[in-house]
UniProtKB/TrEMBL annotation:
Record-given protein name: DUF6628 family protein
Alphabetical list of InterPro entries matching this protein: DUF6628
Upper lineage: Bacteria, Pseudomonadati, Pseudomonadota, Alphaproteobacteria, Sphingomonadales
Length: 148
């Protein structure tokens, strides 16, 4: 007798992954780093390889700052941060909040502060906001600004 594995209901998938993959290649790179480092640790070789390919010889600054941001997120979070697998073509609300915060860290810091505070479940997010701003600036300085 053959059994079928039930597929998740479309409403369940839509509620868990409500956002489309960002179109900006730089935001996709930041999302890739967020997912890989969140799942496999700060020293993930695939993230390092991706940053070398994207930034060339100047990969160190954005890579180290991304590691700092991930460490700050993990250290500060009072709530779980949901991340999807790297192969997933949709984005979780938590991932969307981080990407939006990276996009607005320098242009709309109050918005970024509120997004990160809500995501992390705490109001003391100065270190995380500073790290997000540094990551956004490192990407922009390398000619790869993170767009929303």
């Amino acid at each position: 007798m053959m059994t079928t594995i039930p597929t998740p209901h479309a409403a369940t998938v839509a509620s868990a992954l409500p956002y489309a993959m960002p179109r900006c290649r730089n935001a996709q790179l930041a999302l890739f780093a967020l997912r890989r480092m969140g799942a496999f640790g700060l020293n993930d070789a695939q993230v390092a390889h991706g940053f070398v390919g994207a930034f060339g010889e100047s990969f160190r600054r954005p890579l180290i700052l991304m590691r700092v941001l991930m460490a700050e997120l993990a250290d500060t979070a009072a709530l779980p941060i949901a991340i999807a697998p790297c192969c997933c073509g949709r984005v979780t609300p938590a991932e969307h909040a981080v990407l939006t915060a990276l996009n607005r860290a320098d242009t709309a810091p109050d918005t970024a502060r509120l997004l990160l505070a809500d995501l992390l479940g705490t109001r003391r997010i100065d270190g995380v906001l500073a790290s997000a701003s540094a990551v956004a600036q490192a990407f922009a300085d390398a000619g790869r600004p993170i767009a929303g």
